[in-house]
Write a structure and sequence with these properties.
The protein starts with 11 loop residues before the first helix and ends with a strand. The chain is α/β, with parallel strands linked by helices. It contains 8 helices and 11 strands. The protein has 2 domains: 180 residues, Vaccinia Virus protein VP39 (Rossmann fold); 63 residues, N-terminal domain of TfIIb (Single Sheet). The model has no long low-confidence stretch (mean pLDDT 95). The strands form 2 sheets. Strands 3-2-1-4-5-11-10 form a 7-stranded mixed β-sheet, with helices on both faces.
């Protein structure tokens, strides 16, 4: 299994409060909903669902929604936040709890919130995509978003500092980024979090993770090798131009 980030486990509540201030989940939903409607999808699996911030929109739009995540802490929040949805704990590389029960049944599988970038090796990427292929019905849609590798090359910052104010709390983050093995597209990020309320520190921790970005040609190659070869599209998200939204269908 992947090592679970501090932000995804003991401090998943920080993720749930902070991320709606950083990312526009309503806009994400608009983009994914357009694809799902165009492919007449109803049974939807979401890989890397987190605390259910996008699941809330999808479930309330009437989709038969199942979300999966590796983190029990994230799923615990998701169960309470979106009680009408189903959530399952599993590793995105094999999705073992689903394979025997739901092989060939999903109309669409999503991997949102740049979760696909946690797959940093070619072996893990192909393992995930082959499993996705097996779970999709014929003609089923796989759609996911990734950081654009071209933007990582041009926008790279070794250090960064960000503060957000949410409901009277101050969320401070200090980032340190390092390229992995001189790779232009894979970064190891260490983030120091400090959350204060009226000047009193209520949480302080280190969060470390490795994340991969992609070029469009890479995505085509991986999808083709997994059998996801029909109707490939790839374009920047309108509200996040550094993020590519890609999709392809099972043959």
């Amino acid at each position: 299994m992947f090592p679970v980030r501090a932000l995804y486990s003991d401090y998943s509540w920080v993720y749930h409060e902070l991320y709606p201030e950083i990312f526009d989940y309503a806009q994400d939903f608009t983009c994914y909903n357009r694809l799902l409607r165009a492919h007449q999808a109803y049974h939807v699996l979401d890989i890397g669902c987190g605390t259910g911030l996008l699941a809330w929109y999808l479930a309330n739009a009437g989709y038969d929604y199942t979300g999966v995540d590796l983190s029990i802490g994230m799923l615990s929040i998701a169960h309470h936040y979106v009680p009408q949805a189903r959530f399952v704990q599993c590793d995105m590389r094999d999705l073992a709890p689903l394979r025997s029960l739901y092989a060939g049944t999903y109309d669409a599988i999503l991997c949102t919130g740049r979760a696909f970038g946690h797959l940093t090796t070619n072996t893990d990427i192909l393992a995930c995509l082959v499993t996705v292929y097996g779970l999709l019905r014929p003609g089923g849609l796989f759609s996911f978003d990734v950081i654009d590798g071209n933007r990582v090359m041009t926008d790279f910052q070794e250090h960064n500092y960000v503060t957000n104010f949410i409901h009277g709390r101050e969320f401070q983050r200090i980032f340190h980024n390092v390229r992995v093995n001189e790779s232009k597209f894979t970064l190891h990020t260490s983030t120091h979090f400090q959350i204060t309320n009226n000047g009193r520190i209520i949480a302080e921790f280190e969060d470390k993770f490795t994340h991969r970005s992609f070029l469009q040609d890479e995505l085509v190659m991986f999808l083709w090798r997994a059998g996801l070869r029909e109707d490939f599209t790839c374009a920047p998200l309108p509200h996040l131009p550094q993020v590519l939204l890609a999709s392809a269908c099972k043959i």
